[in-house]
Amino acid sequence: MKMLNRRDFGLAMTAAILSPVTTVRADDMDVHIDNFVFQPAELKIRTGTTVTWTNRDDIPHTVVSVGKFRSKTLDTNDRFSFTFTDAGDYKYFCSLHPHMTGMIKVE
């Protein structure tokens, strides 16, 4: 392994600092609505992740996080997706069945 002298080290550091940042896409995640439950009930994800909810019940549901996002009414096999661009905790619920709740923790 070759040791860098101060000048070469300085040039390497400058190049590293001035290089454009590459954004790595986070993995997309799925939440299923089944038997009046969001599964999983809590997700921990990175910023940039898209979460897709799929209604597997025979009954309509919604996905609502007050002030953040709101799905249309989802019939059986309908989907709703949201991309989380800001870190934080996102509590959500079904507006038709408020006892149905979930949490997305974005780091």
Give a short synopsis of this structure.
By secondary structure, this protein is mainly beta. Helices cover 12% and strands 37% of the residues.
> Helix fraction?
10-25%
Strand order of the largest sheet: 2-1-4-7
Q: Treating each run of at least 4 consecutive H or I residues as one helix, how many helices?
A: 1
End-to-end Cα distance, whole Å, is 37 Å
The succession of helices and strands, N to C, reads HEEEEEEEEE
Q: Largest sheet, if any?
A: 4 strands, mixed
Mean pLDDT: 85
Based on DSSP secondary structure assignment, what is the total number of beta strands? 9
Roughly how many Å is the radius of gyration? 21 Å
| Spans where pLDDT lies below 50 across 5 or more residues | 11-25
What structural class is derived from the secondary structure elements?
mainly beta
Query: What general outline do the C-alpha atoms trace?
Result: elongated
Strand content: 35-45%
